[in-house]
Amino acid sequence: MRRINLVDLNILLYITIVIMAIYYREALTWAMRSLPKYFEGEIEGPRESSLSDKAEHYLGKNKKLKLAKELLDKSIQIDPNSKARYLLGEYYFLEEDYGSSLKELTEYIKIDSTNCDAYLKLALIYKKLGDQKQAISILRQGIHENHENVVKYKPHIDSRVKGKYNQKSQEVYEIYKNLVQALNKELILLGVESIPECCTRK
Prior knowledge:
This protein is mainly α. About 75% of the residues lie in helices and about 0% in strands.
């Protein structure tokens, strides 16, 4: 059996690279020139992200709901597991289509199980639909999911670790702790006096 000649293999590889570089010269040149601008925020990011960002803007102050819906549909076609799923739930909520909003937000918390806004919105929808029991249940679910991260990221200050690491750990811990508090506050407003057991653990 003939042995592979590494020199010939390298020559073939170099020729392939040169051919591809020539063929994709314009695209590569554009990419190299645009990369610094992308990092500086002067050009748009990935298409899916830019679509959902624009949709979020239209859902906000402008209230251009129809245009927002079109952008979100396109965004979800690119990536069905993106933030666009949450924003679509927000769109349906603004249109008072609570059934569709419920469906989209329920799907979204499977993607991002710690999104506080999604749980609060779901609880609000259940309240509007007269299902207080389910509103309480979804808030407790959100508290449980976020409390796990409160425990996970609780800072363990160690003098051997650089200060920046401890600082970042503290910041993440505070974020999740505040999310749990926000969900608990909503629970209390629903008349649930006792804080769920998961949040009393140390």
